[in-house]
Amino acid sequence: MTDDEMSMGRLTDLFDSVQAGMKSIEHMQQKWALLTATGSAAHKRVSVSVNAEGEVIETRFSGEIGDLSYEEIAKAVTEAAQAAMRELRRQTSALMAPVQDQESRMPKLSELASGVPDILSLVPEPPRVSTAAPGSPERLLAESEAMEFADTEQLDGDSSQSGVTGPSW
To answer: What are the E-state strand segments in 24-157?
Structure first.
């Protein structure tokens, strides 16, 4: 068997693996779209359910909700929603595990062509998402830090003719 035949065989195997992987991902996405998760708080007086995208789809109060103040109810709703999201992340991770396992066994681009970086190694990790309430000191600090851009240009004079809608475009 020549080197070209071996390379073509490896390429065919890779294509078959990618095709199988795509089918697995499609199946996983269909299952993911059906996920729901529920979290409870305040001794199960409050429960919140979310869909796969984390949207609240149901909020329920037990018969004993009257034992709580408005402030306690608000806090319980927030805690229940956060618990629901933690459960949703757990379910999503469990659902994705087989696809990630299959992906980890596939050859990387750098293994097929020397010098080519793996695409996923170029993607930065997303930042941790805050669960702090709007207006809280933690959120205000994070927002002010996020709004500082080091490589920005200051516009002088009339800015109505600049930007993507200006005549130079």
So the answer is: 36-41, 46-51, 56-61
Task: Give me the chain's average pLDDT, please.
Answer: 79
Distance of alpha carbon 57 from alpha carbon 79, whole angstroms? 16
pLDDT for 27 equals 83
Integer Cα distance of 110 and 116 in angstroms: 5
Range 63-86 average pLDDT: 97
- Count CA within 13 A, CB hemisphere, residue 99: 18
Return phi, psi of residue 61, to 5°.
-120, 140
Q: What is the pTM of this model?
A: 0.62
